Amino acid sequence: MASSPNPTDQNFIVVDFHYNGQFAPNPLVYFDPDRASVRDVDFSGFGSWNSYTGEHGDYKEFLDLAYANDKRMNVYVDHHNEPIFDWIEAEESESENEDLDEDEDSVIQDSYSVDHEEDDATYPFPANKTARDRFLNILCEPIESEDQDDEYVPPQYPVYDERQPWDQMKPIIGMRFCNPTELKHMLSNYAVANGYDLWFEKNDSDRLLVKCCKKNKSPSCPFRLWASWMGKEKTFQIKSLVNEHNCCRVFKFGSIVTYRWIGKHFMSQIIENPKMSARKMKAKVSTTFNINVSVGQCRNAKKFALQEIEGSLIEHYGRLWSYGEEIIRSNPGSTVRLDVDIMPDSTTLFSKFYVCFKAVRDGWLEGCRPVIGLDGCFLKGIVRGEVISAVGRDANNHIYPLAWVVVCVENKETWKWFIDLLMDDINGGLGAGITLLSDGHKGLLQAVKERCPEAEHRQCARHILANFNKRFTGQQYIKLFWRAVRASTVEKFRGVMENIKSIDTHAYDYLIDRDPTTWSKAFFQEGRDCDAVENGVSESFNSAIRHARRRPIITMLEEIRLFVMERIYTQRVEGMEWDLLICPTIRKRIEDLKVKQRLWGVTPCGYQKYEVRFTDVAYGVDLIAKKCACRIWQLTGIPCLHGVAAISYLNHDAEAYVSQSYTTEAYLKCYKYSINPLNSSEMWPDVPYHKPLPPKRRRLPVPSSSRGSGADPSLSRGNEGPPPPPPPPAAPMPRRRVPVSRSGRRKYSERIIKQALRRQIPGVGSNADNPSVID
Predict the structure, then answer these.
(1) Can you spell out the DSSP letters for 476-497?
(2) Would you tell me how many other CB atoms lie within 10 Å of the CB of residue 378?
(3) How far is CA 623 from CA 204, 587, 598, 645, in A?
(4) 555-612 pLDDT, tens per residue?
(5) Domain boundaries, the chain
(6) What is the DSSP letter of 694?
(7) Please, which residues have CB within 8 angstroms of residue 242's CB and are 6 or more apart in sequence?
């Protein structure tokens, strides 16, 4: 600096330093600074002037702005995470304490005695009564603005919201985060969405310096972000930001796109499809984000996502005890059972979870028919296992979920455990008077036979037909099979089976071996008010919860509960609006029969007894007993076609002859009770039981290689007997003909020659005596 500067020299400038303040955005303001000025500074006097400013573009830009701003430079000092305001307040308090001691304070307090109340408390200032006078308010400013000028309002910094769409995230000066990981994840989204090649120059647990374009480029990208922890609170904050880019867009990122970033974005998809391959994930990343990643990154991303999901699953299974206690607390009388497996190392593993709400059970007992469909369906997401359910039928022939259980595997043991709890809930005993519908699962058939020997067990005809068609195909078989299924009398069934037998005796034997008493109406018991030959109600329930089956276990159970709870309410409200004797579905069936009965002639033959005839087919109908020779009326509880014809002959209303099981009164009894709501998960009670872990993955059994299926089963370890005879010698490989040319030489194609060389087949070209074969 020159001793006698010349004010007219263009190299002399004034530097104003602003320090001990703090930046706040929107708009950018520097709060409570101290100021010091240095005048007549000659930067050209520094020896390293040219090289220094050449390497630091910010300083050169400052000088250019200073010369453009009438030779004056303003420098603002950013103290990052230093508690400047705390230091200033501490210094001010110390200075005040030095100026005023305790004696002086007491003198001041004694000299100013207060013997009146504050004016604001005694005489509240009136509201702005002149606000409506235009003239009086011409030069008046709002009172709120004066208050804002009088008081210091601390800046309000934005908080990072992870729920924001990933392609709309961007850094903002002062934005606060819980930790550096959140900031780096947000910057990754920002870089991918805009094609910026960001990189971390400084990256540790206390600070983060981010720049753009790591490779030396001319000109360099000015983007710069600095973040560190705040001094007064445990918050990671963006302290300085130059959010400008002049670089080219890129779509192949380095360290900014990690396998963790990919795993977080594909977490939900992996939950729904845990078997997603790394190559398929790579293609989805390229399609969704328009970036290129490696297969190894996707493989690691899947591992990371599965580990995160596994941790969440452990928490889900561990809270099953509390979830069951919450159900019992909010719905007294409900049945909840959790079965666990204790391993040799004292580890507790989940096995089964059973739920039956009291409201649902009481509604079924009062308003539903004693018909229950049993079925199971696989879980589709990351949780492995099956949902086994018991579904009834309401008075309108719609589904009525009764109970459900989550099991690891569907077998005889789990079915027997489920049916045993179900029969205890509905007081079913050994199954007398109850009809069960199911598929042909062997474990289920055995469990029903052992636990409910007195119940009527029907098999779903569609499942039998599916297995039947695997061996006997053709429309003729399908048509005859359904005739046999819907035959309501034994005579009709035998006639249809004879037709099948005349076509193929093996098909006849196959159906007879499947026990026709379980799938043909001809052998169904009367008085159950249900002639269903398919387990459609269970299939409908499985379809209704198809989305819930992709969720973690407690989430799935909660979605099933909410579905049933809401359905009970909506069905009750809908039923209360009906002004009908019987339910709409049954009424529609009666109306259809009224149209079809006109072709049948009715001949009375006694009190309330009639013969109903069409051409050469006739049936006897007894209106008092509500019976028909076709047995449809007895099976369904709804007048059949012949019964409707006889009722119409008397000009009676057929709805009066319908069973009480289909009335609106019975329908409202089904949905009379409600499931009580549950509290949120943080309010569930704690239980003193060991938290179960997720079940281990089952592996398919590997067949033993020590003994074939034809070995003697009586042989065992320690009693092997004589060694088996040696196997017979292998048969020689059959010779293969090859084409021969007119000259007697073999004609090998290029493919045959390559195969011979690759497999090193001996003898190629060695049989000169017999050139027409290959050894």
Answers:
(1) HHHHHHHHHHH--SHHHHHHHH
(2) 11
(3) 89, 19, 18, 11
(4) 899 999 999 999 999 999 999 999 999 999 999 999 999 999 999 999 998 888 999 9
(5) 1-98+141-156, 334-570, 582-662, 737-775
(6) P
(7) 222, 223, 224, 225
